[in-house]
Specification:
The chain is α+β, with helices and mostly antiparallel strands. The radius of gyration is 27 Å and the shape is globular. It contains one helix and eight strands; from the N terminus they run αββββββββ.
Length: about 160
Amino acid sequence: MCQKKICFLLIAAFAVTNVNCAKKEETFQQDLSDSFKIEGSDQGIQKVNLKCGSNSMHVMLETEKEFTGVMYTRGSFYKQSAPCFVKPKVRGARSLEMTFSLEECQTQKDGDVFSNIVVIQNDPDLITPGDSAFSLECDFRKPRNIEVGAEFQARDR
């Protein structure tokens, strides 16, 4: 009788252990790229500049200290390919530039307004509280008045 109780307890313990192991193997995966929000931080950033070309966006980042992280458009982290993802080319760099066409990098178009989000991630692998996200917008609805002047002198020979 005692041996049957011990055997029964061992079988019960084995069954509970197998159930727990099966639960540990379950994983949950979800793409959070559209719902993930990063609170903006300008800590360590000296300047972020956007230049809108007729068919491109050019983003320039300048930092106070050496930048060892990455800069990418939202949704481009896992692919990690240019032009939507850039990292410093040289050690000790304090600036980083990214240029992409208005048709690339998941740029959104609403009439003549093109928008995107650029993420500045201080660690190349991990998102941390000091990282930043900036909304980019190129608005081509408004006419631009650009005055161009030139002076020249002609010489008679």
